[in-house]
Amino acid sequence: MRPIKSTINKKSQSYKDNYQQMSSLIDELKGYMQKSLFQGKEKHIAKARKEDKLLARERIELLLDPDSFFLELLPLIGLQGKGYGPGGTAVCGIGLIANRLCMINANVGSNRGGAIDKATLNKSLRMSEIAMQNGLPVVNLVESSGANLKEQEQIFNYGGVVFREITRRSRKGFPTVSVVFGNSTAGGAYIPGMSDYTIMVKKKAKVFLAGPPLVKMATNEITDDESLGGAEMHSRVSGVSDYLAENEKDAIRIAREVVAEFVLPDSAKPAYCKVDKPLYDRDELLGIVPADIKKPIDARELIARIVDGSRFSEFKPEYGDTLITGYAAVHGYKIGIIANNGVILSEAANKATHFIQLCNQNNIPLLYLQNTTGFMVGKAYEEGGIIKDGAKMLNAVSNSDVPSITIMIGASYGAGNYAMNGRAYQPRFLFSYPNSKIAVMGPQQLSGVMEIIQKAAAKKAKIEYDEEQGKQLREYMIQQVEKSSTCWYSTSQGWDDGVIDPRETRNYLAVCLATIHNLPVKGSEDFGIFRM
To answer: Regarding beta strands 206-208 and 333-340, do their DSSP bridges make them parallel or antiparallel, or are they unpaired?
Structure first.
């Protein structure tokens, strides 16, 4: 397997300009990430300190092994909107607890009491999906006042999925541990109630279906928080709690001991074990990945800076060259890579279909590097069968069983998003670069198509087309599409698992591949009908 030979000229003006533009986007990302660290107003944090409570991120830090990584997921969900801000009121991510890969979901109790808004719920649902797909134990650090009642109509119907998935993971042998530090009331009481293991902090945990005021209204019974749902009652009387902790640090200690007893799965062994750093500096990615997605990028230059030893065994290098396919390794884990190098033509689609089948035959996970305006259009391409060739690629992506990771490194337009394993095709992980854009088509193309349609409609109705009004509408549409196609809008909606600095790609892939290999990797032996 030969190393890729880079042809990048770091002294060129285009490289320097792009580096500066990408650096500006990275600064924007850092600013948003700083906002996502918000854990409540000073008065609420002061209150937590007075009550000897740790903040959510402090709890996570104590729970993780010393020097463990923590791959935070969906940190900017809810960035744009009327919710509780970027990240909502929960911190979710993957890390090592007692040397076991675990999913961690921590309520930020010092921010609005840890109330669940729509963004927080969607984050929890995605967290649960990742845990199930990869066989991860889940540790919930619970302190929440329940659903944000102002958004109850958007939360209630799907909120039950969180409880359902706890039991489904349990059936698969993927346990859930809940550590209750404060409130876990109403429907939230089922989080500890349905977990495999529940730990409650003495004098702090409050778990009940209805608090004292509601009990008084419903039954005329007068009671108090502690006797109704305190940690000691649940540990000694109801049995809802399995462990009674003296304080928060004691609860985290118990959680680590519980996780240490979990039986490790028969994880898949890496198909390739020699680990070498890439030959080229990762910092060069800021000069290579185009800040302006209209500018081309040779995906091999990106691959050379993220794979072991920059080694890449390219499959069908002379055929369908608008798509790159081949084998490499990242931190010893063998992967198949599918990367756009332009618009998707029939030859490229057929090559990808072939390569996906080979990776399934050999049980090799796939990495998709998305940067395409979609499939080629035009009379000659329609006659050449671009639809059926694209359908074959979609078939292969849909029915592939090997785990996959998608990174949006540039444009993600139209059916190209689907063919390159977009969110709808359920990759195990999906991340975006800060320059990336996603939409049905580019803003100029979309507004132009609408203008053509409107002119045709006016002609058919035998009325004069208003050029000035059309110009204004086109400008408005361009602005709207530009706004809604940015990575910031996308990540705010939860369409990816996070926006990442391109220089961190290899580190993210390392954690994702370790997570994927938590369970054996097995490819598909069956695909649907390929239209020939």
So the answer is: unpaired
